[in-house]
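During the reporting period the student researcher (J.K.) took over the structure-prediction task from the postdoctoral fellow and processed the backlog of single-chain submissions. One of the processed entries is reproduced below for the supervisory committee.
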Amino acid sequence: MNLALSTTLQSSFADAVAKTRIALQEQGFGVLTEIDMRATLKAKLDEDIEDYLILGACNPPLAHRAVTIDRQIGLLLPCNVIVRADTSTDGNVIVEAMNPDLMVQVTGEPALGPVATEAATRLRAAIASLGGVAD
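J.K. obtained the following structure tokens:
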């Protein structure tokens, strides 16, 4: 099982972030949290890395279904989506979403299967709508 659902875009970083937010919204996800890893690591450790943003995406109906099945599932929510500059190719940006099927694998709770399947379908659709090259 793959850890991530991903695509690579030929785009500016800012454009990739904007398109990713729209794609997530169109699939019923809101962005609850945002962590700018580049800024955080620079401020806290004086370390430089590529543009790297973690978006904590949540689809409330799916989150509710998952929490109803297993209260501890909140440890794996929200669905993290990463937008990061590709350090191997200038002008490319990688967009990755956590594979929701991991929830089922980690917990061993088969009742989470339908929730994970729907979340994965929606995240795949969001990523596919970006028009990049699937990884």
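The committee noted the following: The longest strand covers residues 4-10.
J.K. will present the remaining backlog at the next meeting.
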